[in-house]
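sorry for the late reply, my laptop died twice this morning and i had to redo everyting from scratch. anyway the thing you sent over, i finally got around to it. pasting the sequence first so we're on the same page, its 375 residues, then the predicted structure underneath. double check i copied it right bc i was rushing
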Amino acid sequence: MEQRRVLLLITGLGYGGAERQVVSLAVLLKARGWDVDVVTLLRPQAYVPELESVGIQVRHLGMQRGIPNPCGLLRLSRLLRKINPQVVHSHMVHANLLARLTRLLAQVPVLVCTAHNINEGGRWREWAYRLTDPFCDLTTQVSRAGLERYVRIGAVPPHKIRFIPNGVDTTKFRPNPEVRGRLRQELKLEDAFVWLAVGRFEEAKDYPNMLQAFAKVLRVHKDAVLLIAGQGSLREKAQSLAEELGIAPKVFFLGVRTDIPDLMNAADAYVMSSAWEGMPMVLLEAGAVGLPVVATDVGGNREVVVDGKSGLLVPSKDPEALARAMVRLMELSPEERRSMGKYGRRHIEENYSLERVVEQWEMLYMELLKKKSFN
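ok and here's the structure:
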């Protein structure tokens, strides 16, 4: 079989959802016979051993957050000439724009740019997408809502954008009663109703909304606890707010965790309070584990959570509405919550399994390469 090589370019490698998706894509493409290289703009913070263990080299361009550096353009173009990939697949706004500009300096047969959010940071970035679109073969969006918005604002022409969702490994994220019992005992959760949230402490996730809602939940259900896994620039503010609201003893800030499937099994329900989203990996993961979900109705959340069947959707920035939905879910019978969880897992398996999503990427790469060979 003819050798196939893809370079995956991403802004950084941390513990975010987009980063996890790129790592999963890299590992599975490697297993399916592709030569895979991963390049980051910033120095990687996570996943390097995991990628290197399967023979994927990780390189970085030595750029710094918030500091535009033309050297990154030169380093990437040199790297492309050295590696000579058939496909460059970039992820997230900074990597997407850099990959497009690099095409002025280095030959890239196919360039695919993936946007991971419905809002990638303001009008100037949307204009930058529009201006650099001629340098890209195809833009993809991880949510239908994101695709519709990008076309509506003119960031991408309708014929040059496609929806390909994030995918989740449903063998890794699955219900596991044994893990549930062990971890609840370790965390001393006993008979509490456990809410779980996973994500960076940044503006998009709107943790103040969640904490204010949880304070209202505790007035009705004093046995509830909230676990939050993640790190970020606003973590200390969130902890201070929990203290101010008088709920600190019931909120556990767990930091970065590498056992997210286990944490999800230990929980009774998942909660997301985001102000905006793309296609959140954590909702796919929670659904695959069989957790009922309460989430804000933003971005692609509606595509993942089937309102009334696998969870409940509420308006963003509305702690009252979020609290009411959390209480409503808690007051369902255990059988009703289990039924929601089963529906959610089935929905994920049918629409967002990682194997199916990687097959879509492979078919897209080959389609674009074939089109180039005929031009």
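Residues 4-167+353-374 form a domain with the Rossmann fold fold (CATH 3.40.50.2000).
thats about all i looked at so far, will dig more tmrw
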